[in-house]
Design a protein that fits this description.
The structure is a homodimer of 306-residue chains. Chain A is an alpha/beta fold and 306 residues long. The first copy, chain A, has a single domain, classed as UDP-N-acetylmuramoyl-L-alanine:D-glutamate ligase (3-Layer(aba) Sandwich). The first copy, chain A, is built from 10 helices and 13 strands. A 9-stranded mixed sheet of chain A has the order 5-4-1-8-9-10-11-12-13, sandwiched between helices. Chain A has a 4-stranded mixed sheet with strand order 3-2-6-7. The interface between A and B is large, with 44 and 44 residues.
Chain lengths: 306, 306
C-alpha cells in the first residue's frame, strides 16, 4: 500500500494582507494527504473533536484518502490562529488551542501497518516515534518538525531524526536545532545523526536537498499572487512523498523529480486560502507546471572538455 | 573592444564574525572589473585620492584591466565601513566618507568610447547618465544601483533605468523602488520602464532573471565557509557581463549561462576578505564550479507527452 501520514487535522484562522479565513480546514496531515492524493493512496492518522464537521471528512474521502485512522474524541478540534505580513514568509502565531491534541494516542488500524511509505508530519516527537514503531517494514520514512519541539523536546526529536530516512525541515529550524548559522554546516550536522537526506524548505526561495556528498537546489515557482502560505510546507512534503510512492524510484534522479513535484504542489496551494486551490486542481495542471519548472531552471552545460 | 565599467574604487573597512579587514581594497568598479577580467578586456572609469597606493593600481594592471580612466585627484579616496552579523546577508553601514567621490566628473578616454559593453556600477545616477552619453554605440548596457539613490534621486535613477538593456538590482531594492512587496510584480514594473531584462540578486538565495515573458532562477552556490560577502553583487555582475562580452551571445541561452558564470565568480569572492580570493583564482576552477552548478540544479524533465 501507499503512504501513511500522522499529523494534525485542524481549524485554522488565518489573516493575510489579502483576506481572512476563519475556522477553515487546516492541519499538517490534511495538507500533506490532500497533496499526496494526487499521486498515490494515502491513509491518515490524526484526531479531531466533536465539533469537526462531516463536510471536511467528506472532502478528504473525495480525494480517496483513507480516514480509518482519523479518531474523533470528546472535546474540541485543534485550532491555530496566525497572521502574515506583506512578505508572507513567516507566520506570526496569534493563538494555539491544542484541545483534543493533548489526548491523542495514535493507534494505527491493522491495514495501515504494512505501509511502504510513512510521513511523520509536524507533531509531538513522542507521538511520531509511537507511530514509527507501529509500522512494520516501511521502505522509506520521512519526518517534519517545528521550532516548538526543537525547544521543548530536543532529545525526543533527536531520537526521531536518527530513525528516519529523510528529514524535511525549515531553514530557520535547521539552524535552530543545530546552533549553526551556516546552512551547509547545519545540514551536515543533521545528516550526521543518521538520516540519508535532508530537505531544507526556504519558503519563497525554494528548497535545498542535502545528502552526505551532494546538494540539489530547487527554486520556488515565482508567483504574482500569493494569498495564503499556510500549509505550503506540508503540501510540498505531500507532493514529494506522493510522487516517490507512485514511482517507487528512490534513486537520486527520482528523488530530485519528487522535489520538483512537491514544489509544484506548494506553488498551487498558496494561490488560495486553506485547501481551496486543491479542490479544483487537475493533474494536467501539475504536469504543466512541472514543465515550467524545467524551463525556469534550465541552462546549457559546458562541453565535456574545453 | 570589451567592457567599460564606471563605479567606485574604494577603501573598505569590514567586520564579519570571522575577522576584520581595515582599509582593504574595495569599490564596485574594482570588484566588477577584476571579476570580468577573467573573461574579457575591461576598462575602468573611477576616481581615487592621493592616498591610493600604487600597489592596488598594479593589482588591477596585473589583471590586464585598462586604468587609463582611473583619475587620481587631490583629497582622500572614498571609504566605506560596514559590519555583517552571522547571517551575512545584509551589511550594516557604519560609516561612509565620500571624499573625492564628490568631485568625480567622469571623462572617458577616447579609446573607451567605442566600447561594446558598458556597465554602470552603483554610483550617482547622474554620473551613470553622463558616462552613458559618452559611449557611442554600445551593444549592451547594464546598470546597478542601491537604496541610497532610490531614496535620494529616484527621478535621475528612473531615467537611467529607461536607457539600459539590463538592470541588476538587489531584491529589497527592487521592492523599495517599485513599492511592490511581490517580487514578480516589482519585476514587471521595472521592466515596463523599458529595459529588456531584470536581474534580481538575492544574496545566498541566488538570482532571478526576468524578461517580459520568462523567468530564470539560479541558486547561489552552497558554501560551508563564507568569510566576507562584500562585493559579491559586483563580482556577480563582472562575471555575468564578462562572459557575455567574451561570447557575444546575447540570446537567452547565452545570457542564462552568463548568469551562472556570474554566480560562480561571486561564490569564489565571498570565500575570503576583499579581493583576496581573486588573486589566486584560476580559470579551470571557474569552469569546474560551473559544472558543479549544473549538477546542483539538474533534474530530469518529463517525457514529451504522458
Amino acid at each position: 500500500m501507499g503512504i501513511v501520514v500522522v499529523g494534525t487535522v485542524a481549524f485554522d484562522t488565518v489573516e493575510t494582507p489579502f483576506g481572512r479565513g476563519e475556522n477553515v480546514l487546516g492541519g499538517s496531515a490534511t495538507y500533506f494527504s490532500t497533496s499526496a492524493s494526487f499521486f498515490t493512496d494515502v491513509s491518515l492518522v490524526a484526531v479531531v473533536g466533536e465539533d469537526f464537521p462531516d463536510e471536511h471528512v467528506q472532502f478528504l474521502k473525495s480525494r480517496d484518502i483513507n480516514t480509518d485512522g482519523l479518531q474523533r474524541i470528546q472535546g474540541k478540534t485543534f485550532h491555530w490562529s496566525g497572521r502574515y505580513g506583506y512578505d508572507l514568509n513567516e507566520a506570526q502565531t496569534l493563538d494555539t488551542q491544542l484541545n483534543v491534541l493533548t489526548q491523542f494516542r495514535p493507534n494505527l488500524p491493522e491495514s495501515y501497518r504494512d505501509a511502504d511509505y510513512l510521513f511523520l508530519a509536524n507533531i509531538d516527537p513522542d507521538l511520531q516515534m509511537e507511530v514509527l514503531s507501529q509500522v512494520r517494514r516501511p521502505k522509506m520514512v520521512a519526518c517534519d518538525t517545528m521550532n516548538f519541539w526543537i525547544s521543548s523536546k530536543p532529545e525526543a526529536l533527536r531520537r526521531v531524526l536518527q530513525m528516519v530516512d529523510i528529514v524535511v525541515i525549515n531553514e530557520g529550524e535547521a539552524r535552530q536545532f543545530t546552533g549553526e548559522s551556516n546552512l551547509v554546516k547545519a545540514a551536515r550536522s543533521i545528516i550526521s545523526l543518521g538520516c540519508k537526506r535532508l530537505v531544507v524548505k526556504r519558503g519563497e526561495y525554494g528548497v535545498l536537498m542535502f545528502t552526505a556528498d551532494s546538494v540539489f537546489a530547487a527554486p520556488a515557482y515565482p508567483l504574482e499572487e500569493v494569498f495564503d502560505p499556510t500549509g505550503a510546507g506540508d503540501t510540498f512534503a505531500g507532493g514529494f512523498m506522493g510522487y516517490l510512492a507512485s514511482t517507487g524510484n528512490l534513486a537520486d534522479d527520482g528523488i530530485r523529480q519528487a522535489i520538483i513535484f512537491g514544489s509544484v504542489m506548494a506553488s498551487f496551494n498558496v494561490e488560495d486560502f486553506s485547501l481551496n486551490r486543491m479542490k479544483f486542481l487537475e493533474y494536467r495542471e501539475i504536469e504543466s507546471r512541472f514543465r515550467r519548472f524545467k524551463a525556469l531552471t534550465h541552462f546549457q552545460g559546458l562541453p565535456e572538455s574545453i
